[in-house]
Amino acid sequence: MASETLNRIESTLASSGLILRGAFHPERADAVPARTDRHPTGTLVLIGNAGPEMFAAFTRDVASDPDIERPDPLDTWTREKLAEVSKTMDAEFLHVSDGPPYHPFQRWAMRAEGLKPSPIGVLVHPEFGPWHAYRGALLLAEKLDIPPPPDLGASPCETCEDKPCQTTCPVWAIGGEIYDVPVCARHVSTEGIDCRDGGCLARRACPVGWQWAYEEKQARFHMSAFLTAHGGS
Ligand code: B12
After folding, report:
1. Are residues 165 and 121 in the same domain?
2. Which tens digits make up the pLDDT trace of 45-99?
3. pTM of the predicted model, to two decimals?
4. Is residue 198 lining ligand 1, measured as CB closer than 6 Å?
5. Residue 42, SS3?
6. Atom number, ligand 1, closest to the C-alpha of residue 98
């Protein structure tokens, strides 16, 4: 990315494994909230993860800090990292889990990186497939010099003939018109051992970026967080 400020954000985040996920100049339709200091947001910078680095840094830090807040240690840790970088950059931040109502992170990601949603709603990246996520957004008052989003061409889902993400879920919780969260949670908490240990089967069925699929420890962590939030009874 062209801007010096973006380079500084990137190097400040480097040790946490968090990465830049694009930036854009918000317009009214983007529904970006005002900064608390009432300066308009000139640039929104998305921060997220892809590849194993963030989870490795998180587990290292959490192992050495028994006080990290549960039941959402990853949220607590990413908030700390976003707060640190915000302070250095005179930015404010929004967390991906703030809400409800939730901030439209996926819509912002489509704007920042030109990604498209898969049939199951998760945005598909041409390299990482569905194996990437967002952790926060920095709101900068300055209108940075940023390049236009990359031209990623058509979504890989358009040429995916079988669309296994739509047909793999054994209980049809995902793949249809809606994502049936109670059905998913019930299955994951009972006979869905494979989902519990390896992550959502529909997401794992994607043929794009499978080499970036989360390792077992990370997959188990996310599924356990999902069950903590959604019970599964
Ligand atoms: C609530 C929530 C859930 C709920 C689901 C609620 C529901 N009934 O769908 C629960 C907790 C169950 C859940 C589960 C998962 N989630 Co979730 N979730 C969220 C959260 C916090 C809010 C979503 C929301 O309501 N946004 C508000 C609307 C207004 O925002 P929006 O961007 O404008 O929404 C647009 C998109 O969501 C898109 N869209 C959403 N679904 C669909 C479906 C289709 C068919 C299409 C075309 C578009 C589309 O259209 C919306 C309108 O523009 C977001 C984070 C966030 N702040 O966005 C993560 C988020 C969407 N989840 C994410 C993930 C990865 C998952 C899981 C796969 C995690 C896992 N354990 O494996 C599962 C599976 C769900 C799935 N396949 O989408 C990621 C997606 C990353 C990506 N690559 O796109 C997000 C962005 C979080 C993150 N840290 O990055 N999630």
Report:
1. no
2. 999 999 999 999 999 998 877 777 677 899 999 999 999 999 999 999 999 999 9
3. 0.93
4. no
5. coil
6. 57
